[in-house]
Design goal:
single chain, alpha+beta, Immunoglobulin-like, five-stranded antiparallel β-sheet, 2 helices, elongated
Amino acid sequence: MTDPGRPVTGYPAPPPPATNGYAYPYAAHPQPNQPAYFNVAGNPNHYPNPYPNQQRATFLRRIFAIFIGCIIIFGTIVFIMWLVLRPQVPQFRVQTLTLANFNLTSNSMISGNWNAGFTVRNPNSKITLYYDHVEAAVFYKSESIAVTTLPPFVQGKKNETTVTATLVSLSEYFNDRNGINSDRARGTVDFNLRMVARVKFKAGAWWTRRRILRIYCPNLSVGVSANSSAGSLTGGSKNCRVGL
């Protein structure tokens, strides 16, 4: 027989017996001084999120993933455009270089007129080049003698342009007087030409930002003796080094 005092399994236990005539529930009612949390609807079972740092970390990870994704997309677009356009730097070549009114005084004051003729070739078949500022200088070894600015010009696709530069020195102080006089005694003086150009590349509606071209044309031998004030380039035309 079943014990009548034992609760049936699967059913709630009977309430606790009353004491002094009063029966208490299983869970006590919150006291007035205890905090209660309610959501907007007044639900007392709602509590603040115990993981705010975890949500913030998740948000930062998403922002970082979006940023990396944008970089990858942009890099892919640039790479595809490079594959399609294959941009190349222009080619510079010194065709002529003449010197006139050359003089170097005993107190190291140098003067003269240098006239240089270049051919500039755009090797790109899909890109037009816009030169908006070109500066040229003539050097003896590493010492600058004269500087000038060339007018801007445009080069079409597969175009070859002739550019001239006139550089004038009017009684500029020159440090290496002995070196240049030694070269004149041998009959030739080696000059260097350097150019800096701001160039933009354009293909259809695509433009690049301005790029800086650095052109270096070394060891340009000019036949000028100690008793002469004029001379011209010897040994034929010379290629220049071009870099971005």
